[in-house]
Amino acid sequence: MKIHYKTVLSIIAFFICGHALAEEIKLDFVISEGIDSARPIAVLPFSWKGVADRPLHDVSSVVGADLRRSGRFNPMARHELVQQVDKYQDVNLELWREKGIEAVVVGNIEEQPDGRLKVGYELVDIFRKQQEVRNGELVNVDRNRLDSYTAFVNAKDLRFHAHRIADRVYEKLTGERGAFATKIAYVSVDRSQTKPYRLMVADSDGFAPQTIFASTQPIMSPAWSPDAKKLAYVSFENGRSEVYIQDIYIANSRKRVAAFEGINSAPAFSPDGRRLALTLSRDGNPEIYVLDLTSHRFSRITKKINSIETEPSWTPDGQSLLFTSDRGRGPQIYKQNLASNRAQRVTWEGNYNASAALTPDGKTMVLINRTNGIFHVAVQDVETNTMQTLTKTSLDESPSLAPNGSMVIYATVYRNRQVLSVVSTDGRFKARLPSRQGEVKAPVWSPYLN
User: Fold this and answer.
1) pLDDT tens readout for residues 149-191
2) Domain boundaries 36-174, CATH class
3) Where in the chain is the domain with CATH 2.120.10.30?
4) In the chain, what is the greatest distance between 2 CA atoms, to the nearest angstrom?
5) 103-111 vs 47-49, strand pairing mode
6) For residues 162 and 284, what is the distance between their CA atoms, to the nearest angstrom?
7) Which of 22-31, 88-97, 120-129, 309-318 has the lowest mean pLDDT?
8) 291: CB partners within 8 A, 6+ apart
9) CATH class of the domain whose range is 5-20+182-445
10) What is the DSSP letter of 46?
């Protein structure tokens, strides 16, 4: 989400992107660790009534894959399903209890005369029981339907609507909002193209990648606006680093917001979307600034000499900034309150900590930690300062949190190729999103979509 401390060093030398990456055509999802501890569930095939033999997308496969890649659930394989029904009342609870399945998802899709699709879904808790008084006696009764709803969607939106169903299932079963119906942005490069550098946006599972901007020069550090409609990013199209903001849904909406001599980098939207934090060297030293997007005025936040200040990220309340600074003889994370202008160091473990961001509840900080020369994604408890390494990969960078704070997407190296990976913030679940060709970098997870 931000330009990295070590990359700022390269920008100073300007030859920042000498090792280019090839553009990703489609991302796959390969689970590498954590599924053994997941809850057993079943997602039954949604029935279909329509002119075609089947709908354009297999909704149940999308829902099941989403729940599996959350690390919380282990959907039963389709060939092992003991029933294939599409309504709650037809679910045989005893059959599923014998298999140890905790919850079953059923649904149906019906094509409408106007071409839209009527999608119905129900979530069944197989073991749930409640007690009622009947004829003066306390008896156990089944109250198994946890959720149900019907929606009308355009056929082209069916797959993304499946993500919304997965979000509902996830929230009902965990009490935490799901984050499947979201987007990711990332940078890819394909030197065989006239404009090899691409800013891409795809669904959270890597499906349906679209090029937002293409250039002959490097693109870096994408950052989402809080309404998930805009991306800020760094482009070198004019021979130097410049910061742009672009509405991903409106054509010809690119706007250059920072193009000073020297470094213009690491944009980060404030939680209210009215300000943009970024790194500028307009006064000689790389410092943190905040741009008011209404008045277009810059305010300098840090004022250190002979140190690099970069990678700003906002606290959830919008009152403070986290950033990376080497003012203490090595890159560490600092927190500065915007009202008092007081900065304090918040990381102490390891000789390199960078790229920090807070979870939505403000209780956990995700960052890149270097210990024994290896870069890992780590989390630090804000209250106790206890740090935990989440990954076993090396050369990790660009960590970005899912909007519910449960997962981190990041760039890393796997078998000598740069790939995207995800890890749960408790470290138990890990997966890779390798490209089918080339390499990818600088991932950033979108906020919730309206």
Assistant:
1) 999 999 999 999 999 999 999 999 999 999 999 999 999 978 8
2) alpha beta
3) 5-20+182-445
4) 83
5) parallel
6) 50
7) 22-31
8) 257, 258, 275, 276, 277, 278, 297, 298, 299
9) mainly beta
10) P
